[in-house]
């Protein structure tokens, strides 16, 4: 169990990320949620299912998770409970990606849920506090997380004594106690957790992980036989679900058990089975934990080259060495391993890295201690200074009390006049400044109104010119070309022989293609479907126009008002047309998701593709004419646009005000 000095810390980090647990029967769970969102049920049920689906996919497919979160957001409207839930599940989405954003989301969720006095809100508050503590663990340390658990989360749900959330929180507290070698206290909380869950949630994932946590607690005490009792109970729960990703955690528990019993040959197959599940469900930290135990076993078996390769791979993957103490332990292992293999120069190299990092950590600890001592010293000095000032103040007060009463009156009168003059000065200055601000604001509003009029005139003129050119092309030049084709066909039938007709027919086909291309241009200039059937139909036709064999466009329309003014419909259509044209032309994508939704006066456009993306810095410095026109139309509708792009694709979110030009 030598490597447990490293793994117990990592084990804690691993378990602390499982607050939002997924049922062991994952497929049935996800299928049931998808059935709800695909059925004709109410928006409240759909929103809840979208939230749960977002949480289900948050570690395995971030794009799908984000998509479900956005779909839930579109159904929130003004429901306070759903608004609070959105912040909570947004925090879940960011928990492993950006802890600062996650912390902000959980704090917002706590504020919103605190306004709702229901049992469901209480459970979300408890979970939000706990997850907030997890986001702050690296900054504040484990004592802060324990404080959150015992002062915020557990008291919030202790009034619901039979609920599984309370059992899970007990189990989480037990994990932290295990990490701090408080094994007996950890066992007490694990026992409380298991007793509650066996009675009220006998087939839950919370009970499954409580069994595994208890087994791990006994393994770290080298009590393998006690650990096996709880592993067997966990196995009964997970056995009916061979496809569940939770099997990875079960096989890790079995690995610890066999290592505890010094049955390394039996531990290796458990590691290989666990790796299959961990890799399949993208559990990177658990994957590296398996490799770490594999290294320990290979070294004990004197398979030093294989052991070295495993340890170097762990270092290369970097998941475990983010923590400096773990990195120091790995350097020490590589140094001793190379020394054992006779690679003395390499052993010396790793020893130097170990010593340098150890000195750095020690220096940091010394620095922290010095800062603490300096703070105490400064506090003592300030207290002395305050005491001296208080003494001087007392002496001066005695002297002042001896002065003539007229001097007091004169002093107060002078002070009053000074204060009055200062007040008049600053009030006058503030008043002048406020007038200047109001004047500048009026000038700015006038400039904006003039700019809006100019933009409106330009866009309306552009649309009228598009409509005129489109009609001229379709009715004028299109009709002329069609007539030419008919006359050519009639002339050919009377004057050309069969052999000559073949070449002539090729020319007619090219003329036919030219007529079709002309009609496409005319339709793009002013689509008839927009004028006849409205915005939603026009957008659907636009997506079908751009769809190819190698490109699928998923168009989703949510609550689009068919009574929108035509000018706004045209601008929205042009915005979507420009975005789709850019995506088709430059992104090299295979799938594009276009979602258009409306909530009161706000119209939202979201488009995501899985293409090659582009450099956002280069976009912000030099915008193309198309993107410039796009920004102009967004500004015209008093909207805002956000563009995010990387090598996995591009997402664009636009929010428009449909009252901007009404």
TrEMBL record:
Pfam families: HATPase_c (PF02518), HisKA_3 (PF07730). CDD domains: HATPase_UhpB-NarQ-NarX-like. The chain crosses the membrane at residues 406-427. InterPro entries: HATPase_C_sf, HATPase_dom, His_kinase_dom, Sensor_HK_TwoCompSys, Sig_transdc_His_kin_sub3_dim/P, TPR-like_helical_dom_sf. It comes from the Bacteria. Keywords: ATP-binding, Coiled coil, Kinase, Membrane, Nucleotide-binding, Phosphoprotein, Transferase, Transmembrane, Transmembrane helix, Two-component regulatory system. It catalyses: ATP + protein L-histidine = ADP + protein N-phospho-L-histidine. Residues 363-406, 432-460 form a coiled coil. One of its GO terms (molecular function) is ATP binding. This is histidine kinase. It comes from Chryseobacterium zhengzhouense.
